Amino acid sequence: MPSPSRSVNVAIIGSGFAGLSLLIGLQKYPHINAHVYEAGTKFSELGAGAVLGPNSQRAMKLIDPRIHEGFERRAAFDPENADANGLYPWVSVTKGQEPDLDEKVVEYKHEIKGSTIHRAHFLDELVKLVEPHRAHFGKRLVEIHEKGDEDPITLHFKDGTTAMADIVVGADGIHSVTRKHILGDHPAASAFFTGAIINRATVPMEQAEAKLGDVKSKFGIRCGKDGLVFGFPMSERSLYYLGITTFNNAPVPRDAWVLPVDTARLKKTFANYGDYVRKQVELVPDDGTAMGWSIWEMPPAPTYYKGRVVVMGDAAHASTPFQGAGAGQAIEDALVLEQLLGKYLNNAQETIYRFSQVQTIVLALQSYDTVRRFRSQKVVTTSAETGRLISGNEPGVSMEAPELRMLLKGREDWIWDCDQQQQVKDALQIFEEAQIAAARRAAYDTA
Question: Which domain of life is it from (predicted)?
Fold first, then answer.
């Protein structure tokens, strides 16, 4: 079997956190020619605040230290000092409603300083690292056509143009065309509405503090039956970001991702919550700048790849936001995928197994799938569980603080403390074991 003999063309569909992190990682390999295709007319990021936990930050450094440097320039860090154990506060959950009003349920801490960031600001830092000739706009994907195993894959865009690639990476979010190509008519091909709607708004920090008093920088959630509210400063404490979530809403149409915010209804929904929560809800502006986002979730897919087409980020594992871990999983995806492609598609890579480029690509995507699918799908599952717990929708669980505390304790540890370097090593080992197995099968087939 011949070894790879030419550069590899990688087409990344979508330019959010996932797609750009992968592109930046792949740019450093001279044997990979990566390009991103974006449906919009420019780089842009919907939504406002984001939490990128310790695991996300370690992955940034391993992809390209400049990503983390950009993050540090724009993030808002909690000013509190570390406790006696050297741990900084990150996220707290407090009862916003009786019983146990204002009682702290749990606080998650870590040795890395707690922080939040405006999504658009982080995207700006990613964009600075993208080589301009690699970005293509107005390219809304409508179809992926695979002619044969050894032929380039053809991408068809809504504007009538096409592009060719050896590998297609779908970072095209919850609307993913790429996922549908991979899964076909499988029930997991499309996302489902969870019944939750998050109403998002940003207000000037001075307005928030006039209403709420001194606002801490850490991510604080106040929870109650069928609702939760969180808020935190961002943009160097010039803005206060609000997220007000209601549960068990009526079904919404499949294309109703963004909904109008009925502030009067929100005030009524949270009328029996504590004073602090009611004041947070009163901050939501009536001027149309607030947006309601229906929360959708991806069912667990049986695979993240087919042939030389693969998904990552929300296209692979769109999650509810109740553990603040979705964006971090996208960056982990980017790390594992760029390391696999960077190492094994290099012509100079010494190996006794002479695999074709196509064979090598498929093994790399299989290894990525094995390492990333189960971890990322566990995040989706536990995030949904967390949402049910803190909104009083988990069967058999009360809204009393002691019971919630027991069930929520340690929920972030396995996400935050994942060893990213070991995750990459696992993927590389799986590739090499799969390569040996494939070579052995081929030897027997030709004997």
Answer: Eukaryota
Separation between Cα atoms, residue 219 and residue 112, nearest integer Å: 15
Range 8-80+115-192+298-446 has CATH code 3.30.430.20 = no
The class (CATH top level) of 193-296 is alpha beta
Domains 8-80+115-192+298-446 and 193-296 share a fold: no
- Contact between 7 and 166 (Cβ < 8 Å): no
* Domain locations along the chain: 8-80+115-192+298-446, 193-296
pTM given for the model: 0.93
Say whether 441 sits in a helix, a strand or coil. Answer: helix
- Which residues does the annotation mark as catalytic? 200
Contact indicator for 20, 120 with CB cutoff of 8 Å? no
Each residue's pLDDT expressed in tens, for the chain with a length of 447 residues: 344 457 899 999 999 999 999 999 999 999 999 999 999 988 877 666 788 999 999 999 999 999 999 999 999 888 889 999 999 999 999 999 999 999 999 999 999 999 888 889 999 999 999 999 999 999 999 999 998 888 999 999 999 999 999 999 999 999 999 999 999 999 999 999 999 999 999 999 999 999 998 887 667 899 999 999 998 887 777 888 899 999 999 999 887 888 999 999 999 999 999 999 999 999 999 888 899 999 999 999 999 999 999 999 999 999 999 999 999 999 999 999 999 999 999 877 666 677 888 999 999 999 999 999 999 999 999 999 999 999 999 999 999 999 999 999 999 999 999 999 999 999 999 999 998 888 888 777 765
- Please list, in sequence order, all residues whose beta carbon lies within 8 angstroms of the beta carbon of residue 187, skipping any fewer than 6 positions away: 299
